[in-house]
Amino acid sequence: MKSSGLISFKRLMLPLATGSALLLSGCGGDDSSDNDADNINSAEFSTLKINAASYTDWQHVNLSRGELVTLTAEQAATSTDWHIALRRTEIKINGGVSGSGNGKGALAATPDGFYDAEGDAVASVFTNADADIQAQALSAEYNLADLTFKADRYVPAIQDWYIYNPANHQISANSANGWLLRHADGTTYSKFILDAVSYSEITLRYETQATDTTQFAGGEKTLTAAVADGATELCLDFDAQAAADCGGADWDLRYEINLAARAINLWSNGGVYGEGNGAAFGAIAATELAGYTSATMVDSTSIAAHYRTDSASSIFSESSWYAYNLSGAHKLWPNFRTYIVDADSNTESSEKFAVQISNYYSLGGSGSPEIRFKKITQ
Question: What contacts 58, CB < 8 A, 6 or more positions away?
Answer without folding.
Answer: 52, 73, 76, 85, 86, 87, 92
